[in-house]
What does this fold into?
Amino acid sequence: ILNVEQSPQSLHVQEGDSTNFTCSFPSSNFYALHWYRWETAKSPEALFVMTLNGDEKKKGRISATLNTKEGYSYLYIKGSQPEDSATYLCAFDRDDKIIFGKGTRLHILP
Amino acid sequence: DSGVTQTPKHLITATGQRVTLRCSPRSGDLSVYWYQQSLDQGLQFLIQYYNGEERAKGNILERFSAQQFPDLHSELNLSSLELGDSALYFCASNAASTDTQYFGPGTRLTVL
It folds into this structure.
């Protein structure tokens, strides 16, 4: 059974603090790892697509790393802002199938 | 606005009925993906089409079918509907040159 695990399930972070969370996925048949940001009542918005082991990607205050050999990816948010409150989803793409984690729900406290 | 459109926005129907959900990808995108978001299951990949051909299949029930037309829009057909089919159905598209997927606004299906 292919499983994608995200931890923690939920996270409360003080505004201005930095945070990170994890996505674990099968290390075989890897094609790509997707990160999405999903705000309530909206559609998932693509953050990163990562394909190579050791990849590091950055978009403003958000960055991600990828380790395909051990099957994990980290998402980092630096200096959290209220607009970062959302669910962050990762998806394991093995080209013939895409499996989503259940997401990390991030709450930024003022 | 991602450039992906889905119609209708909401759909309410009865058990046993059949519905069709429609998706228009971003201009120039050849791939269309369908996803189901239900409360207990999270986001589930259903099926992918590329330039009119089925390319990958996920957890799509036999009562469900999809197709992609020559103009690249796609339809997801759901038949013999059950209460458990109530969910938010998303489609997404991407270009051949990138793996980034752009999601549409979704169709909320309620089966009564």
User: Anything to note?
Assistant: Chain A touches chain B at residues 32, 34, 43-46, 49, 51, 89, 91, 93, 95-103 (CB under 8 Å). Chain A is about 0% helix and 55% strand. The longest strand of chain A covers residues 86-93.
